[in-house]
UniProtKB/TrEMBL annotation:
<dbReference type="InterPro" id="IPR037165">
    <property type="entry name" value="AldOxase/xan_DH_Mopterin-bd_sf"/>
</dbReference>
<dbReference type="GO" id="GO:0005777">
    <property type="term" value="C:peroxisome"/>
</dbReference>
<feature type="active site" description="Proton acceptor">
    <location>
        <position position="1224"/>
    </location>
</feature>
<dbReference type="Pfam" id="PF01315">
    <property type="entry name" value="Ald_Xan_dh_C"/>
</dbReference>
<keyword id="KW-0560">Oxidoreductase</keyword>
<feature type="binding site">
    <location>
        <position position="760"/>
    </location>
    <ligand>
        <name>Mo-molybdopterin</name>
    </ligand>
</feature>
<feature type="binding site">
    <location>
        <position position="764"/>
    </location>
    <ligand>
        <name>substrate</name>
    </ligand>
</feature>
<dbReference type="InterPro" id="IPR016167">
    <property type="entry name" value="FAD-bd_PCMH_sub1"/>
</dbReference>
<dbReference type="InterPro" id="IPR002346">
    <property type="entry name" value="Mopterin_DH_FAD-bd"/>
</dbReference>
<feature type="binding site">
    <location>
        <begin position="181"/>
        <end position="188"/>
    </location>
    <ligand>
        <name>FAD</name>
    </ligand>
</feature>
<protein>
    <recommendedName>
        <fullName>xanthine dehydrogenase</fullName>
        <ecNumber>1.17.1.4</ecNumber>
    </recommendedName>
</protein>
<dbReference type="InterPro" id="IPR008274">
    <property type="entry name" value="AldOxase/xan_DH_MoCoBD1"/>
</dbReference>
<feature type="binding site">
    <location>
        <position position="68"/>
    </location>
    <ligand>
        <name>[2Fe-2S] cluster</name>
    </ligand>
</feature>
<keyword id="KW-0411">Iron-sulfur</keyword>
<feature type="binding site">
    <location>
        <position position="1041"/>
    </location>
    <ligand>
        <name>Mo-molybdopterin</name>
    </ligand>
</feature>
<feature type="binding site">
    <location>
        <position position="36"/>
    </location>
    <ligand>
        <name>[2Fe-2S] cluster</name>
    </ligand>
</feature>
<feature type="binding site">
    <location>
        <position position="70"/>
    </location>
    <ligand>
        <name>[2Fe-2S] cluster</name>
    </ligand>
</feature>
Amino acid sequence: MDSRHVITIEGIGTVKTPHPTQEVIAKVHGSQCGFCTPGIVMSLYALTKDKMNPTQEEVDEAFDGNLCRCTGYRPILEGAMKSASDGDHHECEVGCAPAECAEKRSTGTCTAEKGSDIEDIVKRSKVSEDSVPFPSDLLERHTARQTAVAYSFRCDRAAWYHPTTVDQLLSILDLYPDAKLVHGSTEVSIEMKFKNAVYPVLVSVADIPALKSITETDDGVHFGGSVTLTTLQHTLESLCSRREPHQTRGLAALLDNLRFFAGNQIRNVACLAGNIVTASPTSDINPVLMAMNAILRVQSSENGIRQIPVREFFLGYRRTALRSSEVILSVYVPFSCPNQYVKAYKQSKRKDDDITIVNAGLNVGLEFASGQGWVVKEASFAFGGMGPTTMRFVTKSCTFWQSIVVDLRRYSSAKLTAEACVGKTWSKEMMENAAKQLVIDLPLTLSSPGGMIQYRRVLALSLFQKFILYVSHQLAKLTPGVPSVVEREVSGIENIPRPLSHGVQEYENEKGAVVGETTTHLSALKQCTGEAVYIDDMAPLQGELFGGLVLSSQAHAEIKSVDYSAALKLDGVKAYISANDIPGWTPDEHHNRNVVGPVFRDEEIFATKKVYHVGQMIGLIVAESASLATRAAKLVRVTYEPIQPLIVSIEDAIAAKSFFEFSRTIKTGAYKTTDGPKDERVVPLSAATHTVEGVARMSAQEHFYLETNCSLAVPSKEDDEMLVYASTQNPTETQHFVAHTLGIPSNRVVCKVKRMGGGFGGKESRSVLLSLAVAIAAKKLGRPVRCMLTREEDMAMTGQRHPFRGEYKVGFTDEGKFVFMELDLYSNGGFSMDLSHSVLERALCHADNCYHFPNVKMRARICKTNIPSNTAFRGFGGPQGMMVAEQIIHHVAAYLKKPAEEIMRLNFYECDQPTHFGQPMENVYLDRLFADTLRTSDFERRKAEVAEYNARHKYRKRGIAVLPTKFGLSFTARWLNQAGALVHVYTDGSVLITHGGTEMGQGLHTKMVQIAAHTLGVPISKVHLSETSTDKVPNTSATAASVSSDMNGMAILDACTQIRERLKPYADSHPKVSWEDLVEIAYKDRVNLSANGFYKTPDLGFDWSTGTGRMYNYFTYGAAVSEVEIDTLTGDHVVRRADIVMDIGKSLNPAIDVGQIEGAFTQGMGWCTIEEPLVSPTTGFLFTRGPGAYKIPGFRDIPTDLRVRFMKGATNPRAIHSSKAVGEPPLFLGASVFFAIKHAIDAARAENCQSGYFRMDSPATAERIRNACGGPLVEIAHVPNEMGKPWAVVA
């Protein structure tokens, strides 16, 4: 930090005086939960600081290192684009861009005329360049010194050296040859955190001018080893713009991969040499440097200066040719020659900021020979992601590959490949023969680390194919008569272009009404200025301690011993907490206080005798700091005795018959056995003239809330009281279980929730365990204890969305009308029940989606496996059930060779038709909404355009799909459908409200304030909501099932109505007094200005034993049309456009509801495209821990054109102010992207002479897309099953 000016979110503005970058994100509704907002604001601020007039493209790229799980990104991007210099700043009353303005005027939705765009609550304005001035004292020091100063210091665990010359650096390395060099610490920090690496001596190379030089010569460029990747990127861009095009082909290739290397924040501090010496087999830079024959210049005191070709630098996994004490001074990258062609490719799960699956640097030099054509003179091909090191094939003198270096083995020659190429000219036949040998030269087995073996083999061939197309296309331009790439194949050369994102929102605006207006999230500006307080932001309390978790490293084992003595020896470590520290606990106790569960008590807080999954909590180290607690926890040694079998996946459980006892069955129509007379309305099974059978398989999904689980327990000095601050959706359950575990009444425990940094269901039940652990520690030690999980800990122990498998058989008529459905549904519950039974019930009840099946026979079971307990996640089983229904729709459509939308419309529910669980359908708008969606999206015209595009392009295909949704609203457990509220009116006229719901970014508190203000007839500014607390509103239900606005809103309405009725006589007798005076008059007449509101949802009560009763209060409907484009060679995809139409009744707050729709759609899109948790089948270890391995959609994964529309004229008499729930229903619409991808794959398969229905499991990852497209390369790269057991599986 020496001489650095560190600016944080708090430093650039406050709520009272916000910086324009803060204000713009808040006003465009770009902050929901707010936990990601500081990073996003600072990325925008840094951009405007670095570039006074950034382009739209630069704005778009500024966020490639940021993630948001709530908003869907669109409002953030639109707000940030106001800072772009090349934006369209034409004169529009509300500042719309010309294209947007024209679109809205043409559709009659002009925001200037109707005020219906949520960004138009304030006039748009360009973000100013106001910034925080550089501190004068630092500026004076910098001016006086000009250069950095060398220094060093030591602490208890390490020494830090900061040299400023190469000589100083070499002298330090002479003393400490094993010292670790650090520049941006992007790799070192990972090694220290995740690999427990310890480096006693660290040496910074960030301020050595000699290592930051860039020298341009006639033949190439010398880049200093400490040149940052951002500087490298800008330099390459400059060189490519100044030099002859043929000279910079290699540099352009390096630039191509560099653009997708990590995120801006990493590239700003990571350096070139640091990336090279890590010797990562998936490095995005090393394959290009190898292919370009780059040379490293290294130096040490002992060996002096020497040069190492990059092709000879990598000796094995993470092993290089650097000798002891050597450092990389510079990297020489040669310019390319006139007839030299260089390309770089990278494929990853997510396009931006992701680790490569396979990448390549491909370089070929040719010479034209009369009578022969273009002859290969030399070639250099390097692949990353195909083994433990970057793998290179190099040839000279007409031989393609003479040697190959692969991980720890050396191959003297790739004879088969060489023999296929020797003496050949550049031709299609030669390259096809070479490709067949390439698979042999890239050996991978099913158990190879990284998995995806079939895909990686295909991908290497596909990238090679892209290179062939590129070179052939270039050669045809040079030489008349040389066969060119046909026009249909040209699209295979480059990546799919992705334009800048934009969006349109259309809805009915309640002008002048408090309820129904576009009120900004009440915490938005606080979140944008860093003033919003989350639990870990709370100032440390007196005597506060911190917890570090001891988690199981085995998936199924007996605990033989736990040795925590080494941890307790560390100074500052106070205790090791286990089940033995629970007050009054004995393992044989009838009511075991160490055993909890939201419904079924089947899970230990601290594992005592056995562990059932990797990441199960065994104990808690308590220490004086969080870092010390974490370090000490790693010293705890647990010995295990493994137990067999290890069951991980649904398929494992089915084979082993490992199920929970709970199951559900539904039978209707002809399947329902009755003793009475035959029901003449039953459609006979024989009416089906066709049947299809299939499997619908869905993966899990990580919640990835930005704020991980965090709890703080504060013990009282009297009456055994305990105060718990928790990031939880379920404060009452937290309260009850803390009381249960500590052996005290619930009235001694208070749980408070200010806000959460996201929840999505993941903090409904699983958050309780952490709260219990810190509460037990606080009770024992008599001091506050806080613990916040790391991302990796959170993902390892808290569970995910349930994976599902549906095995179906469906009968239907010639037209496609459904007659029957038989379905066996399996979910993966993990090791304990948690909420799996309720998730299963909702999945079963949504397996019809929007379609009527006259005869149904369904059976559902929960698999018991050795993974963390899966739990609630936005949709709560509904999306999984609906995915089965949509797979059926597309299966039947493919069988009958009819459009899927035709089968949908034929089978839509009609009013009064009963669902398969017996609930008559009311107020059904499906036909109208579906027709509206098709019309406003221009579906038929675009579908024809997609077909035309596909006919003209071989390697890129487009697809378009429409998808409806029907989502039932209410808790399926009847007793949970209740809510309470407490409203106080103070004598100054201010209003304080409290209710049982929690705020996690969904805008619940904002809506509740609106309802209170509307009911009392006061401005929103008069109403305040501080927090959720169990001592204000007791016995609350979890904030879940999307009904929190419905229930808590009605409870607030009830309380406010009581107060309003009490004030009515005084308002009637004093019609002209102000609200404040009215309150004072009533107070002085001794009127109670406080009220307790209550609401219970009427008419609910489904009986599973009889199949009767009302399951849901009402249904929310929606539909979406998505259009995609896929690269059939790589499996990459871009969502070109998405149109969403929702029936949400009369919106309480359109701004918030649009945000919920866009966020849910993006989350649903992630679930069925790029998000895929992977588990080791042999150890149960979750491979996809943390943002490095698990990818959620980023800023440039959203639809480039996103349109949201509220269906007009829809009402809902069964919810407050005729609104409808909106949190969960839109999520499944993201699956429209899955089926659009499937449509595009259909076109690719037709190109390869494959037709008819094909099974594709969800998610549609790049791997699944490419493999499903088929073709000759897939056949060449086929991996036989006998090659080994898979490295990873989907649970």
